[in-house]
Amino acid sequence: MAEIKIMVTVDNLKYRYPLTEELALKGVSLEIASGEFIGVIGPNMAGKSTLCQALVGLVPQFYHGAYGGRVIIDGLDAAHIELSKLASKVGIVFQNPFTQVTGAKMTVYDEVAFGLENMGLARTEMIRRIDEALTMLDIYEFRSHNPFDLSGGQMQRMAIASIIAMRPQVIIFDEPTSQLDPQGSEEVFKAVRSLSRQGMTIIMVEHKIEKIAKYADRVLLLHQGRVVDFDRPQKVFSRPDLENYGVTAPVFTNICKGLNITDKTSGLYPVTLDDTYRQLRANNSEFGK
Ligand SMILES: Nc1ncnc2c1ncn2[C@@H]1O[C@H](COP(=O)(O)OP(=O)(O)OP(=O)(O)O)[C@@H](O)[C@H]1O
Ligand SMILES: [Mg+2]
Fold first, then answer.
1. How far apart are the CA of 21 and the centre of ligand 2, in A?
2. Which ligand is closest to the CA of 47, given by its number?
3. pLDDT tens per residue across span 105-156
4. Is 68 exposed, middle or buried (0-12, 13-18, 19+ CB in 10 A)?
5. Distance, CA 165 to ligand 2 centroid (Å)?
6. Among 20, 55, 136, 157, which residue carries the largest CB count within 10 Å?
7. Residue (of 204, 258, 199, 220) closest to 46 by Cα position
């Protein structure tokens, strides 16, 4: 088996925003391996966005406040390394594609070029990276368009392309589809899945639980600034106390709970359609014996 490389380490992270009383993160510890797709779930105020900001160093470097513990991204200490250096390892995509557009550039091409301009790359290398990022996000055909003429889904893919062009190993998504229509959301999920398949480490906060069930290798359940669970989707979504943490299981999990379609050895419920189908077949072949 290939050796597992730890890409992200969070060690007892505690954080309080300035002028607030309660800790937003109350001792979060976790490790993420290179190439994993992590889904982050939890109710409002759980600390999901704060954790994202800590992974890219904005907490505490931009927000300041009280900070304890450590966040290490591929060997770099996120609280202390220059943010521009960290940006070549880890990028972040936010909810609203509009707020991520610089507004200073007239074309999609120049917008994607913008982040690279301060990296000191040779011109040919810049062009190579921009073309590659536009192609990967399937927006090459829009390269001469004004960013504000794009649909929400296209604009969000442009934001992702801008990050990809910097070649980070980790990308954080904080509810990247919550402002998009169903088509735009689907475009973004497809794009993220293809990045994941190419080996990028993905950490995605998302309320669309069916998507997390389908794509995530592991699910991080946060509640009131603490890690409740960090495990395979089947494990997290089979928890009988899930709703106590403000999270509803995927629809297939609930159907299977109702019909008692479960893996007899582990006691876990399926989380997707494919999973349900597989489990039904397995259970039926047991009956047939
Ligand atoms: N900029 C800020 N200044 C002060 N407090 C903040 C700030 N951002 C978040 N908080 C506080 O930190 C805690 C965690 O909030 P956070 O935004 O990380 O939660 P979340 O899980 O992302 O919630 P949501 O699902 O609503 O996006 C909350 O108590 C919140 O009020
Ligand atoms: Mg949030």
1. 19
2. 1
3. 899 999 999 988 878 889 999 999 999 999 989 999 999 999 999 999 999 9
4. middle
5. 25
6. 157
7. 220
Distance separating alpha carbons of residues 113 and 117, to the nearest angstrom: 6
Atom 13, ligand 1: which residue's CA is nearest?
Answer: 24
The CATH H-level superfamily of 6-249 is P-loop containing nucleotide triphosphate hydrolases (3.40.50.300)
Neighbours of ion ligand 2 (CB under 5 A): 48-49
Query: Tens digit of pLDDT for each residue in 24-36?
Result: 999 999 999 999 9
Enumerate the domain spans of the chain: 6-249, 250-289
Ligand 1 atom 11, closest CA: 24
Answer for the pair 263, 63: CB distance below 8 angstroms, yes or no: no
Closest CA relative to residue 218, chosen from 36, 43, 91: 36
| Distance of CA 145 from the midpoint of ligand 2 (Å) | 31
